[in-house]
Structure formats: C-alpha cells, structure tokens
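Troubleshooting log. The previous run stalled partway through. Resubmitting the same two chains, unchanged.
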Amino acid sequence: MTIDAPVRPQAPPATPEAPATSGRPGPFGKAIPRREDLRLAAGDGRYLDDLGHEALAAAFLRSPHAHARIIDIDITDALGVDGLVAIYTYEDLDGRVAEPLPLLIPHPALHAPRTNYPLANGVVNHVGEAVAMVVATDRYIAEDAVERIRVQWEPLPAVVGLPAAFAAEHAVHPDVPDNVAAHMVQSVGEAHAAIDAAPYTMELALHVERSASMPLEGKGVYARWDADDRSLRMYSSTQTSTSVRFAIAAKLGIPVDRVEVVTPDVGGGFGVKIMHPWPEEVLVPWAAIRLGREVKWVEDRREHFISSAHERAQEHTVRVGFDADGRILGLDVRFLHDNGAYTPYGIIVPIISSTQLLGPYKLGSYRVEFHSLYTNTVLVTPYRGAGRAHGCFVMERVMDAIADHRGLDRAVVRERNMIQPDEMPYDQGLIFQDGRPLIYDTGDFPASLHKALALVDWSGFAAVRDAARAEGRSVGIGLATYVEGTGVGPYEGAHVRVETSGDVVVATGLTTQGQGHETVFAQIAAQELGVPIERVTVTTGDTRRFKYGVGTFASRSAVMSGNAVAAAARKVRAKALRLAAAALAADESELELADGEIVVRGFSSSDGLPGPRIALATVAVLANPLRYAFDEEAQRATQFSGQMGATPAGDGPPVAEGEEPGLEATGWYSPIRSTFANGVHACVVETDPETAEIKVLRYCVVHDCGTIINPMIVEGQVHGGVAQGVGGALYERIVYDESGQLVNASFMDFLMPYASEVPRVETDHLTSPSPLNPLGVKGVGEAGIIPGHAVIASAVEDAEGFRIDRMPISPSELWELRRRHAAGEVPSLRRASSLQPGSSLREEPA
Amino acid sequence: MSEPTHEVKLTVNGVPHSVSVPARRLLSDCLRHDVGLTGTHVGCEHGVCGACTVLLDGEPVRSCLLFAVTVDGQSVTTMEGCRSAEGGLGPVQRAFMECHGLQCGFCTPGFVTTITAFLRDNSDPTEEEAREAIGGNLCRCTGYQNIVASVLRAAEILREGAVE
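Second attempt completed without errors. Output:
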C-alpha cells in the first residue's frame, strides 16, 4: 500500500506550561540516589524466580528444526518419570487457547499477518518453537521428561536470510508464497524525479545484521489459580502487566476482574518483554487452572536465544541526489526487513526505521519502501532503539558518503542539511509509529552538533591522527546524529493517595525493568505535594493497584507515567488545599503546601513563625468522613468531632458536592503525538594494523531529552545504551546457518561486551523542554544506543580509508575488507589520501 | 523410582545449614531454593555472566557451575552475606547505591561478591585495576562506568571503616 503525505493543519506553537520545578524547592531535577536500591542493592529484590518456591515447574520441548511437519509425538517414555505431573501438546489445548496468539498491532500494510499457536499445531517454523509443555515437581524432572518425548518430524526447506526470503524459492507459510508479510511505501515530494535531476547522485547498499535485547534475566511466568474464589493471580517478567492481563483474560475466558497480573522486579527488558502474550504466558496459567496447582516457568538462557524475539536484520538500498554543497535533494530508500516466522507485533520496527531514518535533517524529498519478509527464524519485535539504529545507520552513512564525494567536512555536510531551531515545530510529512504525524516538537540540532564537536575536539583531531600515525597507530573519528521519537501514546495513568499517616502512595500501570521509576515518579509526586521524598512509595506494573495502562517501551515512561503522576498529584494537591482552607477558615489562595503541612503563606516552618497550619496527614483524615474510628487520629473524622469533611458540621453533606472521600486522585496523560529527543555521538577508534582489532578510545554523547527529572538516572540510561550500541556495532550478532540453526545461542558465542570492551562515556546535554506535556520531559531510554552502528562505522571508515557499509563489523571482517581493498576490489575513500600522515582533513567553510 | 539424595552441610553467611539434595543439584539452585537465599541470581547457567558468583571459602566461584554436593563442609558467602552487620546495605552495596552502579539489579549480586573478594586483597585499587576486577561479569544495563566508580567508592568506604 502507499501512504502519501497527508495534508494537515500546522502544529500549535510551542507554549510549554511552567514545569513543576518552577519556584518551589523539592527533589524534582536532582540527582538523588535511587529508592529501589535499598532493596535491590541488598540482594532483597523479588524477581520472578524468587517467587513460588512450592510451585510445580514447567519445561518445554522445543523444535530442533527450523521448518518441519510434526508427524507424531510419542510421550510413552516420558510417562515413567517420577515426579511428572502433566504433558500437554497442541491436541490438549481447548477454547481460545487452541487459537493462534493475537495480532497485537494490525496495520493496513501488513497484508499477510501470521501468528503462532501456543504449542505447535502440526508444523514448526523456527528452531525453538514450543511443541510440548511438561509440568513436574521440579525443573530438573520436567526437563528429564522433555528429553523422553519422541517426535517424528518431516523436515521442510528452511528459509533463512533476507535474500532467500525475497527470492522465495521456498515459502515459510504455504499461503504466503512470496514470503512478504507487509509492503509499505511512504513519500514526501517526488524523490525519484529530484534524484534524477540532482547534480550528483550515489547508490549505497547498507546492511545491519540480527541481534537481540538479551536481558540478564530471561522471561518467566508464575500462576496461582484460586478455585474457590474463581480468580487468577499471575506474575510475569514482562514490560506490560496491564496488557497481559487483558490478553490472558480473553484467552482463558475469565472475567478480567478475576485476573490480576503482577510484574515483580524485572532483570532487564530492552524491548523483548514488551511482546506478549508469549506462549508461556498463556500456557502456565492455563495449566495452573487445569491442575488446580501453582505452576511456574523460568526461561533458561538457551530458551531465551531460540524462542524469545530478536531484531535488527535489514538490508537497505539507497539512492541519493545532492548538490555541490552536499545538500540532499532527494533520498530513496528501499529495504528488506526480516520479521522472522511470525508477526504478532506487527510492522512497528520497519515503520520506525522508515520514519526515524530522517534524523535531524530536512530532505528535499524522500521516498521509503519496505518489504517485511518471513524467514524460518525467531520472530522479530522491538529491541532498544527499535528500527532507529538501522535508520540512523543508513542516514549517517549517506551523510559521510556525500561528504567524501564532495570533499567536505562530515560535520559541515550534516549541519547544512539540518532543520534549524526557528523551523520548529517541524513536520516531516510522514506517519509515525503511533499513527500520528511525524512532527518534531523542539530541539536545536545545530547546537547539539556543535556541542559534540567541541566535546570530542573534532577540529583538533588531525593532530591526534598525525601523532598516532607517527607511532605506527591507526585512529579514526566518527560522527552520528539522531532524532528519537519518545513518549508514544496512547496513554498512561497514575493514582496518588495521601494516607492518614501522611505517607504518599503512588501507583502507575506501566512496569519497571531497572529505569528507576520508584525514584523518578516519587520525585514528581514529592515535588507536587510538597512532602519529603522519603514519605513517597511508588508501585508499578501491579494491576491490583492500577488496572489501566499500556507498557514500558519506546522511551515513554517518564513522559507518559511521569505526567500522569503529576496530573494525579496536582488533583490531590488542589483537594488538600480545598479541605485545608475549610478547616483553617482561610482562603485557598493564601495557603501553601510544604514539608508535609499546609500553612498560611508567610507562616511556613522555614519562616519560623507560628501560625495556622494543618498537617497533610490530618487533611487526609478529614477527607474521609467516618462513622467508625479505627485509631486515635481517625476519631477526628467521626461525626461528633466537629471537624468532619470539607464543610463545617451542620450545613451540607459530609462529602461535599463534587468531592469524593479520601485524599486521593487518578490522573491521566494522553499525548496528541510523540515528543522528539535528539542527540549527537562522536567517537574515536583505533584499528590494529596487524589484527584488525577495533578499540573505541573515546565516546562522546550530547543529548537533549527536554526537562530532566533525575540527571543521575539519565546519565545511567545513556551509559547503558552506549554499551549496547558498542556491543551491537562490534561484537553482538545472532547467527543462523543455512538450515536455520542458531549457531551462537550462548553467552560464550553471543559476545556481549564486558567492562573491558565498553569505553568511558563523556557526556554533555541540552535542554529543550517539550511543549506537548506539562513536565516538558522527553524520553532518554534509547538515546545511548541509536547511533552506535553509525558512529562506529563512521570512525572505522575514517581510520581505514575505505567505506564501511554493513554492521556489526568484526576484526576478521575488517581484515577481509583490508585484503579486498589492497586487491583493488574495495575502492578507497576519495579523501583517503588526505588521511595520510602530515595532512589534515580538507574543509570548506560552511 | 525417586532420585537418590545426599546430605550436604554448608555454612552460608556464617549460618550452618544441612540440606538433602540430588547429586545433580546446582549450588546456585541449592542456595536459592533449598537454603532460601534468593540474592544469588542465575543469568546463563553456563558460567559466563557471573550473576551467580558467590564466595566459597572466601574465593569467588560460579555457583551455577558447581554441584551442591561438591562443596560439602565448605563455607559460602552470598549477596545476603555482604550486608552490614545490622542487615542494611554493606559497604560494597552502599557504594553501588551511591554511584548508581545498578539499574535492574539482576547482575549486581555477582558484582558485589566479586568486588568484596577483590577489595579484601587490594584495598586501594586504581581505576584500571577496578575495571579489570569486574572484567568477568556481564551487566546489560549500566555500561560498567558506574560499577567501576562503585568499586573505587567501596574501597574508600572500607578504608574509612578500617580507620574508625
């Protein structure tokens, strides 16, 4: 299908509301230590496998074939295993559990969606697909039984890799003979004509290989069915407990109010746990109900490799037309996206690639077309940076190529193509992943660039290169920019309640996998309510506490739940002031809330003056008119105390018209569209002349995520993202052989970086508040990872003097490129001669 | 037929325990599920990530690579044993909190035990030595920079404690 640039009214001008921080002291914006660390750093966290010690254990028989028919499953040998409780195959599934898993995000361009069954229904489409579920008294015994199940297979031809998928000699799904799940085109202007008319044109082939989120804790599910109460409680190591709840209630045919989903502490997600419901999330509670017993499944590392989602594999063909100054006149990108065997998460990743590819640049015209293809491999869903890392790689490779073609400085070419701050908000004319227009809200891209150039000392690098050359060393410098759509909707909510003790409890629907939500949301609530942060506790991802929400992904938590917490807290604050005004016989406008009490302005404790005051705790007591006291404090709210409610005793109802009992409120935030963060990375690499080993010597990050709630946590997010970006650029890749076996399914072979591989990250930042939300915040979760491929490719290319067009790059691949370069098979960069000793980069004034 | 079990005596964080386990029971599973100390985490079960690191008679070992029966009579220190005497954060744990050395916290136990043993032998490490000391543990969240800082800060806390 084709979506042409829609005609839309211009976005409203940027008129940010004053952020919560203005004028009031408080914890908002401060680098305060994380409150969850008191638990997590003490070894007192509660992760999925720390729960349910008495539960039965589940293990899965998984397909050893990439593509095969199941002729027969023989469980006879397994039945003799002592401690075995149950074995289930597809034939045992009933009701909606026997149907394919849901298509989570349908899209008109996804014309041939396919999702898997919880257990394979006669055919398997990737190594690792679940075929049988065993439940036993412990995991060791369950695995014993799995080993004794005999399956008779009829192997089918496996489709592996994008070229094979596109050639479609064989099909993954027989009813999708061309292997094309989706085909989509978006365009702005007439790119083909603009390129044809451009003074200069170029074509590039740019590839990114498959990788994976790889959290240190795998997935896990633990379910308890209360047969008497007819209710299910389920724990899952997920990025979305609210959505899992709805999905499981629907699958199992249980009223949603009888299902509770709790996300305990989660050992990392990075995207893979936003996919849901996983087969195990359906089957574990289903088995718990059938057996009337608690059942738990904890994914082991090999299972995670072969049955949890991957990402990143895309092959791009680019045509660009540009002028003598390096300005892009037209860009045409066609790419193939490997979506694996199934498409439950839709085509979000290639849509993000298509749109975020543009980065901070305004192109004369742009056309992007992708085919999303089935392969007999693990399904593909977002991994941190989802689609953006590949898009950024493509755009930034194009920038470097244009610079080289025109003999221009790489930074100069970037700046010439950048959207200027006075052009904000800027409409790119495309539809983003939230179904809304791709309109950048704020940002000063040239300023970000210049900060990064200063941080890395771009202009001083020629001397660094010369000095290194003099020692026989080879170094290169790289540059990459990005724009990141963050805070995608549709919404999040939060509930804030002041207890009669004065403690504040906050709950929000989305989940936490290490982002410090217990701290940042507490900072927001404490700021809004004028209470010490120590009095605030935050619960995330527990549907007993908050039922509605979407999930944690796309750098959205601070934006979405942060603003929802602020909205709820502001309602509570307003209510507290109303009640206090009545109790103090004062006007609301005279009151202020600080240090856990409401005082008449000018009489706060810091003023040292005695005056009318009421503790927030007392207001909480008065907010809930009582007939029965449960403690001494509560006696003040009973009917003969004379203090009850917002209205003095005698006239009006105890709960005033329009009020509700309790000092609590629910707030919501639902954005009209995403808010866009941006940044620039620059790095210096050294390449070993003998071994082709690549070492990152310096890594500089400048980022702009709007108003910052906790700079320590923001820095931490950037550091972690960079580590994954460096890993993705130099070490990590998921490798399938031609028969569809995942050949590096262990930490011995999937090379995540250790401390020795990750450079120290030097950071600087800008603050361009978002006008789209009251706090002015933008997301930062993916800022560190997005330009990883791009910036390291840029630096390696600079060190080597020939083009780098696929990532990741290993020493052996670089060595091979050197050999081919020496043999004349790989051309030199045009500027290669200037990279020699004693010369500087040629530069043109901007 | 039920699987034969073996009596294993362990001293965990100074407390004697006696457990009855099959020969194949991993030390990590024994500590977590038989002794009930879930501060030790299991990230890969093939000895690479280091999340399950505990101190066996004071030396760091991967508890996912050991059978519980092979450590009969020995002394084990886990993440819980790195807490302060009062049960709050111990010196290394406190340093992690102060330096934002953890995010999801899943790998943290292996780092804390490893660093505890390292600082016992090297009380004033350089930054390079600190980085080297944690070179066998995987963290997917932090990028290690703040863990290196945590090592240095923990050394400082321990030295201050020694002076007091």
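Takeaways: Chain B has two domains: 5-81, 83-163. The helical segments of chain B are 27-34, 91-98, 108-121, 127-133, 145-163.
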